Amino acid sequence: MAAVPRAGLTTERLVRAGADLADEVGFDQVTVSALARRFDVKVASLYSHLKNSQDLRTRIALLALEELADRAADALAGRAGRDALAAFADVYRDYARAHPGRYAAARLRLDPETAAASAGVRQAQMMRAILRGYDLPEPDQTHAVRLLGSVFHGYVSLELAGGFSHSSPDPQDTWAWILDHLDTLLRGRPAS
Amino acid sequence: MAAVPRAGLTTERLVRAGADLADEVGFDQVTVSALARRFDVKVASLYSHLKNSQDLRTRIALLALEELADRAADALAGRAGRDALAAFADVYRDYARAHPGRYAAARLRLDPETAAASAGVRQAQMMRAILRGYDLPEPDQTHAVRLLGSVFHGYVSLELAGGFSHSSPDPQDTWAWILDHLDTLLRGRPAS
DNA sequence: GCGCTTTCCTAAAATTCTTAGGCAACCTCC
DNA sequence: GGAGGTTGCCTAAGAATTTTAGGAAAGCGC
Fold first, then answer.
1. Phi/psi of residue B187, nearest 5 degrees
2. Domain spanning A62-187: which superfamily?
3. Looking at strand C, which nucleotides approach a protein CB closer than 7 A?
4. Which pLDDT tens digit goes with each residue over A58-78?
């Protein structure tokens, strides 16, 4: 009898392949069936490694949050102030552009306890670390964390949705303008 | 024979009901089947009024964009400066909180020509009208349009995703803080 | 080699999306 | 008021996805 080689499925590999699939065809096109096809395996086989379709999506989201946090941590090393702010912001923007499916996954609504155990927490901590350089008293610091989160997510999200495409000025210039003004705002001094 | 009363389906009614459904169960749970159940009608019957499932979602998105633009236009009447800015921002936030499914629909990626014919264009025009009160030269005005869009969308989106829940300070305070600082930023003078 | 666990399978049910074609209700026009 | 055309909703059917249940075989430890 022909030996039937194992495909070597693991939750890890499935989630990573699911993330790649998301980047290629969009997060909401990620399906257990498509993933099975990619591994040339029957659909039911995946259910030994994944609880269900939602479980797959959640795991991709957690992977994306980890990757984002890792990159942010790297980018922040040795930086402070405006430098740190820009580095952090660029990580977000670059990640979203390079991995739109993963980025969309990271925006998935997680139930509170899953969210609390995710790398999203690390991201918030890094944001606070950046803001320490601006010496804001509470509750301003928290307000600022929320503002930065909103701007970064909002901008990246709109740019990804094609909101700024084919229009001048260059989105890159807007990005720099925004970072400049955020820096100024956090310093409490007027823009040039 | 028992008279079989017509359900009175129209594209209009279906889209409105679909939007309500989105608010109740989430935009991505909006399905042709669920909509048919709601009208107590067979699924295939909807295909006389809707091209397909994607068509339904697109129409809900366009409805939401119209509603948002209408509310924004109402809110802006007779206002200028910081007042107009806050009124516009509150329309977004309030709409998203009252109609989360519709708001999610409004974030749907539309193909460029559909987007160009949507009420999204009116929203951008209103944003520029608000900014005329701040007297910004180009390209700063465009940068500012993008910044405001990012902040409004980003904040509302994060708040809706539960990002600020159960944490102090009150999100309402953050919202006011952000609007204050945006106003200041646009004026080019330091915050108090 | 012998069992045990893991891995992947077949089979089957439920749900959704979509198209094709039919009958009956309604509107128009004589 | 009936004839004919149009519209509205139907039945039927196929394809895809999700999920569960249970089976066979591969590879591990002894």
1. -75, -20
2. Tetracycline Repressor, domain 2 (1.10.357.10)
3. 7-12, 15-21, 24-26
4. 999 999 999 999 999 999 999
User: Can you give the residue ranges of every domain in chain B?
Assistant: 63-187
**Phi, psi (rounded to 5 degrees) for A35:** -65, -40
Cβ neighbours, 10 Å, residue A160: 17
Dump pLDDT digits (tens) for A101-156.
999 999 999 998 999 999 999 999 999 999 999 999 989 999 999 999 999 999 99
Positive or negative CA dihedral for B36, B42, B46, B51? positive
Residues B109, B106: Cα–Cα separation, whole Å: 8
Name chain B contacts of A150, Cβ cutoff 8 Å.
150-151, 154-155, 157-158, 178
**Which pLDDT belongs to residue A180?**
95
Q: Do A112 and B162 touch (CB under 8 A)?
A: yes
Q: Which one is the CATH code of B63-187: 1.10.540.10, 3.40.50.720, 2.60.40.1570, 1.10.357.10?
A: 1.10.357.10
pLDDT digits (tens, 9 = 90+) for B110-127: 998 999 999 999 999 999
- In this prediction, residue B176 carries a pLDDT of 96
Q: How far is the CA of A3 from the C1' of C3 (A)?
A: 21
Q: What is the dihedral of CA B83, A182, A106, A156, to 10 degrees?
A: 80
